[in-house]
Structure formats: C-alpha cells, structure tokens
Design goal:
Length: about 300
C-alpha cells in the first residue's frame, strides 16, 4: 500500500493507538511512527514490544516534524494534551483524535491550535474491553467505520488524506457533523454501555442474596453485559461527562420504552411483546447483513471485537 504520511505521532499509547501503529506498519502507511504516553511504565512497555518505531520521552520530541498527530487519550484529557503539544506542531501538520465523543473535543482542542495547523477530529467505531499498550492489534479497524467530523471550514486535502489513512487501515470512512455523531453514538454505544453497567450492578447486588449463582449460571445475555461493563472506567466516565445531553435524551426515551414493556408484561400482553421482539430481531439481522457483526454464537466474541 502507498505511504500516506511521512511521520505520524501518536499521543497516548493504549488500545487504539497501539492498533493504529500496528495497522500502519502492516500496511506501510507511514514513513515513521513515533509515540508518547504520560507514564514511564507505558513507554517502557511500548518500547519492549516495539509498538511504534520510536517511543519518545517528551511530547515535544514525539510531535517534532510530524505531518499527522493523533490524540489517543481519554476524551476528558484531550484539551490538556492539545495544549501540551500545540507549541511543537509543524506548520501544515494535521491534528486528529480518536475520542468517542466529538462535540467536546472540537470545542476544547480546536481553539488551541494555530491557524497553520489542520484539525480533523475522528472516531473509529472499533474497540474491545481491553486497554493499554499490549491490547492493540493490527486488524482492529478492518470493516469498521471511522467517522470524521471536520468543521465546515476544514481543509479538504487534509480531510481526504486522513480518510486515506483510515481506509489504508481497513476502515470505511464517513463524515458527519460532531453533534450528529454524538447523538448517533449515544444510541448505538453510550446508552447501551450505561445499561450494561446498570444490569451488571443489579446482578452484583443480587449475587449477594443468591450466593454467587448469578456468576455460576451466567447465561449469554448477562455474559455479554459483563463484557461491555468491563470496559475502561476512565474512558467511559469521560464519555458520559462529555456526551451528557445526548445520553440523557436517549436514556429518557429508553425509560419510557421500558415502562411500556413493563406494562405489557404486567398485563400479559403477549401480542405486544411478540411484535416488539420481532421488530428488534429484524434490527439485529440488519446489523449482520451490514457486516458489522457475526451471527456466530456469542457473536463470535472471544475477547476481540
Ligand atoms: P487506553 O488503552 O486506556 O489508553 C489510554 C492512553 O491515554 C494511555 O496511554 C494513557 O497513558 C493515556 N492517558 C490516560 N489518561 C491521560 C491523561 N489524563 N493525560 C494524558 N494521557 C492520558 O485507551 P483507548 O481504549 O486506546 O482509548 C483512547 C481513546 O480512544 C479514548 O478517547 C476513547 O474514547 C477512544 N476510543 C476507545 C475505544 C475502545 O473501545 N477502547 C473505541 C473507540 C475510541 P498511560 O498509559 O501512561 O496512563
């Protein structure tokens, strides 16, 4: 594959940065990939496993001469990290990110960047419940969506070049407005995560009265919830704090819907429940047909999504 950037700097060296580094190397997309993480322990691990071409001990060193800098830290840390890198950015460089929420990143990072730097926020819809530099893998983004949310005045060539990088890593790329992204993700990812956290919390409470039978006999539905609820607490805390409005809007709708189903169960309205579950089954089929999941038992998830 053709090289898209001469030098890419990854700030934060966890699951997403690690997967990007491995995917770029595998597909020859960057001349050199540098990396920086705030803790010496993460930098040491990244060095030991050869995650990037050069692990740097300062952001200044990592960012120097990079034509693409990608912020791969929790959403709540994006502003502070952008302020740290801003003085060292090369003129004409593109700054992007992989944060799960886009409105807050645009609001916090955009104003910190000089006019001669392009800002093209992004979000790969791919991940696992694992985190840290050793959790990345080169195929994470294959056939997954990456959503770019440049603002209306963004440089077209810079957006297209970043899109080419994501396509090179196997992703499908689409563009949308940041607020729209946050609403869509509140439905497809953020609220479902909150529901999983809640259900696992309820089961945990119950486990105390059922003498751990909840764990022992855990069935597919609950096991899927526990996998989601095992996701990184920092990342998810930040998602809810920064995508507050959209998540609360969807949670409100969810609660209304739940009450309707609750009433159908209480009144024995089997026809209503049957119709409802028939509709939801069709949605599942649509996801499989769109190639965004597998029909295999356990959804084919043996650790890596
Ligand atoms: P991760 O594996 O936990 O790695 C996070 C990295 O960010 C680590 O290198 C960590 O440094 C650094 N970091 C954490 N807090 C920081 C702070 N306050 N200041 C500076 N650096 C900090 O996380 P990830 O899963 O790769 O997620 C990174 C981003 O991708 C997040 O914005 C997340 O929303 C987004 N994302 C995640 C997924 C997913 O499923 N995991 C999917 C799509 C997008 P140390 O190791 O030195 O602590």
């Amino acid at each position: 594959m053709t090289r898209v950037y001469q030098r890419v700097a990854l700030i934060g060296l966890g699951l997403i940065a690690g997967s990007m580094a491995l995917a770029m190397r595998r597909n020859g997309l960057a001349g050199e990939v540098t990396g920086y993480a705030r803790s010496a322990a993460t930098r040491d691990t990244a060095r030991r496993i050869g995650l990037v071409d050069r692990v740097c001990d300062s952001v200044a060193e990592a960012v120097a001469g990079a034509d693409l800098v990608v912020l791969c830290v929790p959403v709540g840390a994006m502003g502070a990290v952008a302020a740290e890198i801003a003085p060292y950015l090369a003129p004409g460089a593109t700054v992007s990110d992989v944060g799960s929420v886009k409105g807050s990143v645009m609001a916090e990072v955009g104003p910190l960047l000089r006019a001669d730097v392009h800002f093209v926020p992004g979000h790969p819809l791919a991940g696992t419940e694992h985190s840290g530099p050793e959790s990345g893998f080169a195929t994470l983004f294959i056939n997954r969506w990456c959503i770019l949310t440049p603002d209306a005045g963004a440089d077209r060539a810079a957006v297209d070049r970043l899109a080419a990088l994501w396509r090179g890593m196997g992703a499908n790329v689409s563009e949308m407005d940041a607020d729209h992204h946050d609403l869509v993700l509140a439905v497809t990812s953020h609220t479902p995560h909150l529901i999983a956290y809640t259900m696992v919390g309820v089961a945990d409470d119950l486990a105390r009265v059922t003498d751990s039978e909840v764990i022992k006999y855990s069935a597919a539905g609950f096991r899927d919830f526990t996998r989601i609820a095992a996701s990184d607490p920092t990342m998810w805390r930040d998602v809810f704090l920064t995508n507050k409005d959209a998540t609360l809007e969807i949670l409100g709708r969810f609660t209304e819907e739940l009450f309707v189903l609750q009433r159908a169960i209480r009144s024995g309205d089997g026809a209503y429940l049957f119709d409802y579950f028939t509709r939801t089954r069709a949605i599942r089929r649509g996801i499989i047909e769109a190639g965004q999941d597998t029909a295999a038992p356990d959804f084919g998830r043996t650790g890596k999504v």
